[in-house]
Design a protein that fits this description.
five-stranded mixed β-sheet; 8 helices; alpha/beta; 253 residues
Amino acid sequence: MATYVVSDIHGMYDKFIKLLHKIGLNDDDTLYVLGDVLDRGPNPIKVLQKLMEMPNVVPIVGNHELMAIECLDFLCKEITPETIEDISTQMINNFVNWDYNGSATTIAEFAELDKDMKKEVLDFIKDFSLYEEVEVTKTKAPHGTHGPKKGDKVTYLLVHAGLGHYSPTKEIDDYTLDDIIWERADYDIPYYPDRKNFYVINGHTPTQLIETNPKPGFIYREYNHIAIDCGACFKEGRLAAICLETDKEYYVS
């Protein structure tokens, strides 16, 4: 029984399937998905439908899901003079923002679904968690004498973007939706330095864009951050996963 984390699949269905085979995900394993399943890549809805079939998946909301929910809800409505009149400036801005962030593939695949499946997909997205806190027991010592030891209990806070406006005195529920879904993590700030064996895992910022990362495009670890968005939808990007019990990293290009 193992615990895996992946983030920012962004419609890269083929990479996702290859990654599942690579990690050898079993029915008694758990896979946490840190948001941004949708947009950019060619098959975002296909990825979502795959996740819907997997009872051992725990999806966490990303900014792309947040952008999609209200817009997809509107696209499910019958177009009438009344619904057209109800289009607000805010709704138009939502569509513009979502389009700027790569909504085209999501909208195209969603449009091909029948009415019942559209509702199932939307209900599934709306049920994504905001964050998860997971405790595991290490089955090996991943960081030698400076990290957890084999047999240690380690806690991971799983969020999409990080902890915007971070303070060590803040409880997770004190962070705003924007803080944990949109605000990019500051990787120069140590997270919870006084909490032994406590780490924050996030996606959202491709590791190619972290200036202090010595291995752009691979999982980045520093100051109790673990950043796992390795730019799956980039031309030479990777989809990455990490096993929490062993710290083993998995990549598909």
